[in-house]
Specification:
heterotrimer; A alpha/beta; B alpha/beta; C alpha+beta; A: alpha/beta; Rossmann fold; five-stranded parallel beta sheet; 5 strands; 39% helix; B: alpha/beta; 6 helices; 27% helix; binds adenosine-5'-diphosphate; binds magnesium ion
């Protein structure tokens, strides 16, 4: 699993949301490239090959799906860290959250988030959103060339 | 001395023409006809006496002449249209002593000089103002007696005689009298 | 000083004039009484042509030394009787008295003449004329004038003396007091004090009172300032508390939006999955219940969303800009189009005015009213929805009307409360937050909103966007609290 090329990093603490998201991704044939981080710290460890992921060779995923409300290090802090690191400065980050608060939206965009998606309550809409997201960032969008 | 006690207060309706004619008579008192003046005075006396109430309100104020009438038409002219109080004045000639009872003012002609005393006492307390120009009229029980002084017609009064008849003469009249008798003549 | 002198001169002048007039009037009255007495007493003399008696009557005038002469004329104008004092005077011609009068008087060379008709009970018999000299009046007047002049001179002299003294003991301290008062009111410096005279008189008392007043003002100022500071501090404290409360509220709605929406999504998601993947294991009842679970989750999601947006709007400042209400209506209409696709609706949209308002918020108002109109006309074969502007009592009123289910006017006041609904969920779904939001927006604009409705006949909503001009009577149907 460590060797597989991770295309999506999902930072989400809520198991139900994880399950629903993963199911949707699976339905869209995108599941095998997903790594799930259950809090902000773990997401950063995974990205920058630290802690439990120290042995991993650095390889940026194609997109990070980031919840804002994460234990330990919250979504905004994770985003800050990503934007602060040279290697992940241009990494596409999609905020995926329940919050519709204007403050969250604004600060996210200020930190250079690529998309801000509010998770719909309605499951069908949710499914549709996730599907399109995966398609867009993994299939349509060409990652910017490094260097 | 105010108007309210003025004895003329009940005097109404004297026509201006007649008053003017009276004034003319007064202004020329010594003029030929002495009886013009006396007729006017007869009427004027009525103005200065407090009369007992008339038996009927609209009864005439009768001024009588007893005996031979010395006035003639003058008296009728003088009294025509005049009134004393609310009563209009009319002249009347009487020859019967009993008729004097209906008179207010009674002029006793000199022709009656012989039986005047008897006639006056027959009037008793009847409220008749007796006037005459015969001499000694007051001594015989009369009330007002004409006389001529300095060519002017003047008069004397006997207050007691008037009072006995229940008549009060106004002080305004009394003060003009040449003499004022205050006692009755002795009964004989 | 000059003023008081002038006043004194004026007063004494007025006094003298008054005295003169009073004496004259008294003189005329006195003469008139005498004329009346003579007229009364000479009437019979005239009637019985007795000038001697009339003369006696006139002779009574000898008691009045000021009477120079007198005469009684008969109607023909001839002198009937006369009286004179001292040198025999020339009695003038028959005095003329105008017809309307019974008495007349006139003045000649220091003499007063008075003529009176002798007419007992209005029957003219003659005229009485009396003349008197005004010597008495003049003498008395001269006396008065002399006294007045003396008093005047004395007063002025005294005034000069007193004012010199007063200047030293009164004017100077008063001027100083006035100067202090001027400084105090100019500089608002209430710590100034007027210098005392030390003489223990009324002036000193005045100065002390003045100083006392300043003292009082100073103290009051101080306590006012203290109260003001205290108030300021308390306002600050309260504002702080308010801010904290607001922060808390924000945090609360933030967590609601997060924490409440997530479990709903899960309920909705898993029941969907259950319905998809375990369809065959479920009988018809099970599938029905599942559908109800989903529906419930969806409703609650909408409720949470509505509540949150209402909270957000409540906190939002109104930013007024000129806006074309027609445009806002159009935008709301377009946004809701999906809701009434396939419906037969007759639109009667009149011209809406331009207004100074918060366009975003007013668009929300239109969106809510329009979505209600669309929703509550759903059962109509042919729905009619109107919007436009009318003028009521000189006020611009915007309205949205429909011919839908309507409501009982009895409950009109309830429409605008949060979660207040007049229809059952199974008839018309909804959360009961829309009109509450609308009302808040209108009130934030200073306007009013009210509704009219009749069951099964439709509903109309009216609102204004600016505070009512004062002194206008409130329409009976307005609901504005
Ligand atoms: N156009 C309308 N016709 C009839 N009733 C209405 C209309 N608009 C609103 N109402 C009544 O007012 C209530 C409150 O409206 P609203 O706050 O928008 O809540 P909701 O529409 O979600 O029920 C509604 O439940 C309904 O009973
Ligand atoms: Mg609604």
């Amino acid at each position: 699993m460590i060797h597989a090329a991770v295309e999506i990093l999902l930072a989400e603490d809520n198991p139900s949301d994880v399950e629903l998201t993963l199911r949707t991704l699976k339905r869209s044939n995108l599941l095998n490239t997903v790594h799930v981080a259950r809090d902000g710290e773990e997401a950063l460890d995974f990205l920058f090959c630290r802690g439990p992921h120290a042995g991993r060779d650095f390889a940026a995923p194609k997109v990070v799906l980031l919840d804002l409300k994460l234990p330990k290090v919250d979504g905004i802090e994770v985003l800050e860290a990503i934007r602060a690191d040279e290697r992940t400065r241009l990494l596409p980050v999609v905020i995926l959250t329940s919050s519709r608060e204007q403050a969250d939206v604004t600060s996210s965009y200020k930190l250079g988030v690529n998309s801000y998606i509010q998770k719909p309550v309605d499951f069908e809409q949710f499914q549709e959103t996730i599907r399109q997201l995966g398609l867009y960032w993994l299939v349509v969008n060409q990652p910017p060339s490094e260097g | 001395m105010t108007r309210s006690t003025f004895p003329f207060r009940s005097l109404l309706g004297i026509s201006a023409v007649l008053v003017l004619s009276i004034s003319a008579v007064l202004a020329h008192a010594s003029s030929p006809n002495e009886y013009d003046v006396k007729a006017a005075y007869l009427y004027n006396f009525g103005l200065f006496v407090q009369w007992p109430a008339a038996p009927e309100p609209d009864a005439a104020f009768t001024i009588c002449v007893f005996g031979v009438d010395p006035f003639g038409k003058v008296l009728d002219r003088t009294l025509a249209g005049q009134s004393i109080g609310s009563q209009s004045t009319i002249p009347r000639r009487i020859s019967n002593p009993q008729d004097a009872l209906g008179c207010r003012i009674l002029f006793v002609s000199s022709s009656e000089e012989n039986n005047v005393k008897q006639f006056l006492s027959s009037l008793g307390k009847t409220a008749v103002l007796t006037v005459s120009d015969m001499p000694q009229f007051l001594d015989r029980g009369g009330m007002i007696q004409f006389m001529v002084v300095n060519n002017r017609v003047r008069f004397e009064v006997n207050l007691a005689a008037a009072r006995r008849a229940g008549l009060t003469l106004s002080s305004q009249l009394v003060k003009l009298a040449v003499t004022v008798e205050t006692s009755l003549p002795p009964e004989k | 000083m000059l003023v008081s002198a002038a006043a004194l001169v004026l007063a004494s002048g007025a006094f003298t004039a008054y005295t003169w007039l009073t004496f004259r009037a008294a003189m005329v009255e006195q003469l008139s009484v005498q004329a009346r007495i003579i007229a009364f007493n000479s009437a019979s003399a005239l009637l019985f042509n007795d000038p001697v008696s009339a003369q006696k009557t006139l002779g009574a005038l000898g008691a009045s030394p000021s009477i120079v002469d007198a005469a009684i004329y008969d109607n023909g104008g001839g002198v009937f009787a006369r009286y004179w004092r001292g040198r025999k005077s020339l009695i003038k011609a028959f005095p003329q008295i105008s017809k309307s009068q019974t008495e007349a008087h006139w003045y000649t060379h220091g003499e007063l003449s008075l003529a009176r008709r002798i007419e007992p009970q209005g029957k003219p018999l003659g005229v009485v004329l009396i003349r008197c000299e005004l010597g008495e009046l003049t003498t008395r007047l001269e006396g008065y004038a002399a006294i007045t002049a003396a008093v005047l001179a004395a007063c002025l002299g005294a005034a000069v003396l007193i004012s010199a003294g007063v200047h030293r003991s009164v004017s100077v301290p008063v001027i100083r007091l006035a100067e202090t008062a001027r400084l105090v009111s100019r500089d608002k410096n209430y710590s100034l004090r007027a210098a005392a005279t030390g003489s223990r008189d009324e002036l000193d008392f005045l100065i002390q009172s003045f100083n006392g007043m300043l003292e009082e003002i100073q103290q009051r100022d101080a306590s006012l300032q203290k109260a003001h500071d205290e108030l300021e501090r308390r306002v600050e404290e309260r504002t702080g508390l308010l801010h904290a409360a607001n922060k808390e509220l924000e945090a609360f709605s933030y967590s609601v939006s997060h924490d409440l929406r997530a479990p709903l999504r899960h309920i909705s998601g898993f029941s969907k999955i259950l319905a998809e993947e375990n369809r065959d294991q479920l009988n018809a009842d099970g599938r029905h219940y599942l559908a109800r679970i989903e529906e419930g989750a969806r409703n609650m999601g909408r409720l949470v969303d509505d509540l949150l947006s209402m909270g957000r709007i409540s906190r939002q400042e109104v930013v007024r800009r000129p806006a074309d209400l027609n445009l806002l209506w159009q935008e709301a209409w377009e946004r809701l189009q999906p809701e009434f696709e396939g419906r037969k609706i007759e639109w009667r949209i009149g011209a809406l005015p331009a207004a100074e308002c918060d366009p975003g918020l007013i668009k929300l108002v239109f969106t809510n009213l329009l979505s209600n109109a669309v929703k509550y006309t759903r059962r109509r074969e042919c729905a009619v929805i109107e919007a436009g502007q009318i003028t009521v009592d000189g006020e611009d009123v915007i309205f949205v009307r429909d011919n839908g289910a309507g409501f009982d006017q009895k409950y009109a006041h309830k429409l605008f409360g949060v979660f207040q609904r007049l229809h059952r969920e199974e008839d018309f779904e909804g959360a009961g937050v829309g009109l509450a939001t609308v009302q808040r927006i209108i009130h934030k604009h200073g306007g009013r909103i009210w509704a009219e409705g009749k069951v099964e006949c439709g509903a109309a909503f009216f609102f204004t966007l600016v505070p009512r001009k004062p002194s206008r009577p409130k329409p009976a149907n307005s609901v504005s609290s």
